[in-house]
Amino acid sequence: MQCRRVLGILILGMTIASAGDVTGKVAFAGTPPKGSPLQMTADPVCKKAHTKPVTGEDVVVNKNGTLRNVIVYVKSGLKGSFTAPKDKLVFDQMGCLYTPHVLSLMVGQELEVRNSDATLHNVHSLSKANPQFNNAQPMKGMKMTKTFAKEETFKVKCEVHPWMGAYIGVFNHPYHAVTGDDGSFTIKGLPAGEYTIEAWHEKYGTKTATVKVDASGKATVDFSYKS
Predict the structure, then answer these.
(1) Separation of alpha carbons 200 and 70, rounded Å
(2) Do the Cβ atoms of 194 and 212 come closer than 8 Å?
(3) Prediction pTM value
(4) How far apart are CA 39 and CA 162, in angstroms?
(5) Do 174 and 165 contact (CB within 8 A), yes or no?
(6) Domains detected in the chain
(7) What is the average pLDDT across 55-70?
(8) CB of 109 within 8 A of CB of 85?
(9) Starting from the edge strand earliest in sequence, which strands make up the sheet with 205-213, in order?
(10) What Cα–Cα distance (Å) separates residue 197 from each residue in 46, 76, 79, 132, 152?
(11) How many other CB atoms sit within 10 Å of the CB of residue 70?
(12) CA dist list (Å): 183 to 25, 26, 41, 174, 226
């Protein structure tokens, strides 16, 4: 059986010529909700970290009318198995907020959890498929590394600062992405074939679409949410 390494992922029976990228945007229709300022006055370190009011990140609509913090991933259609990338992702606590608010990674991929604040945080996962963890990081500069063995998307919270919340998506393949400040995403190196692509948002739920990736290389799929 032929074996090639594509974009750092070991994929059986696939050649570089048969891989393509899926790109798109997640639009938002309607009036963006107005977020309430987060009340950080209970912790002087948190209050001092921000010169302007900070609102929650459960719904972030970008200037171009797109939605941030949406996980877009291949839900079905993949064949074979994949090895986790060696790149370590960083999940930080900075300004008494989780950064990033939403992230996605692969089963077995390392996640470095940091505390960049000079105050106590605890990181409590509300995972179900994976064992929960609840670790305190009382000092600035503390780090710990986590890995996950099963697919799921779960919330992380801090009991010390109840406004702090984030989401982590874990997948058994590398074909996933999170929308940023322009609402776009790119799923790279997807083998030629037909797939179900799903978009997930913490408040507005899921949307699905079918996309065909040709051997020549590229496909486009867009999603839209409304208030």
Answers:
(1) 6
(2) yes
(3) 0.90
(4) 10
(5) no
(6) 3-226 (2.60.40.420)
(7) 97
(8) yes
(9) 176-178, 71-76, 193-201, 205-213
(10) 38, 7, 15, 28, 16
(11) 26
(12) 5, 5, 32, 20, 14
